[in-house]
Amino acid sequence: MSIKTAIVNGVAGIEIARPEKKNALTGDMYQQMADAINAAAGAGEVRAILIYGQPGIFTSGNDLEDFMARPRTGDDAPVFQFMRALLACEKPVIAAVTGAAIGIGTTLLLHCDFVYVADDARLAMPFVALGLVPEFGSSLLVPQLMGNRRAAEKLLLGDPFTGEQAVECGIANAVLPSGEVVNHARRVAERFNTLAPSAVRESKRLMRAPQREAVNEAIKTEADIFSGRLRSPEAMEAFQAFFQKRQPDFSKFE
Question: What CATH number does residue 218 fall under?
Fold first, then answer.
């Protein structure tokens, strides 16, 4: 299994465990994560959810081979099921990030309630470099968090950024040594064992309510454009360049 799950002391752990592929996410893995979040949301003994990866790698984003073989189209695609599950989850979601968090590895953090990053973390949203567009509401939320100028660096140029920069711009709560991140995040998750669960859920709902409609609309609009671009000549060139381990050549496109 590339996604490992376990409930320990009221915390539902979801571990991305595919280190041989840098924790690249397949459709099956998205489905497993969606199912795990939905199961945790409905389990009375679960007070919080913890998402983390392997030591030194959160996720390198989509597995492009799987991505090309099974393009994500339609509302029932596993990746959209994962997005809906994370968005709808009323319980606190905590993320622990070490190493690389690429593409959706960064954008999913926008929908977690607490994010702790390692001092070796490197986040990036290189959608344009792949001939694609931002997803998971990032075209709305990233400019809100860091302003249009810095958002352009991250979403148009795809510039990577550090854990410290993620804290500075509001994506993450704190930077910790790599070996301490998961344990710290788990301790935060376990604090919800002593708090009134319905009060936590209602408070999270109130915090998210003003943005909910706008976020859902942004995700839908992004998904429509993203799906249309998957077979675009620019995306095909970018994917071929990735597999051939070369720089893409966009000079012929207008």
Answer: 3.90.226.10
DSSP-assigned letter for residue 45: T
185 within domain boundaries: no
Residue 106: inside a domain: yes
Non-local (6+) Cβ contacts of 65 within 8 A are: none
Q: What is the pLDDT of residue 27?
A: 94
Per-residue buried b or exposed e for 183-209, using 16+ beta carbons within 10 Å of the residue's own CB: ebbbebbbebeeeebeebeeebeeeee
Using CA atoms, how far residue 85 sits from 166, 175, 189, 237, in Å, is 24, 27, 18, 32
Which residues, other chains included, contact 115 with Cβ-Cβ below 8 Å and sequence gap of 6+? 94, 95, 97, 109, 166, 171, 172, 173
* Cα(74)–Cα(216) distance, integer angstroms: 15
Give a yes or no: residue 145 inside a domain: yes
Q: For residue 142, tell me if it sits in a domain.
A: yes
The number of distinct structural domains making up the chain is 1
Distance (Å) of CA 67 to CA 17, 36, 72, 86: 18, 21, 7, 21
Range of the domain at 45: 1-178+197-254
pLDDT tens digits for range 224-246: 999 889 889 999 999 899 889 99
Q: What is the separation of C-alpha 24 from the centre of its chain, rounded to a whole number of angstroms?
A: 12
Cβ-contact 54, 22 below 8 angstroms: no
Measured between alpha carbons, how far is 143 from 140 in angstroms, rounded to an integer?
6
Q: Which parts of the chain register pLDDT below 50? A: none
Q: What's the rounded Cα separation, in Å, for the pair 223 and 190?
A: 35
The predicted pLDDT at position 73 comes to 67
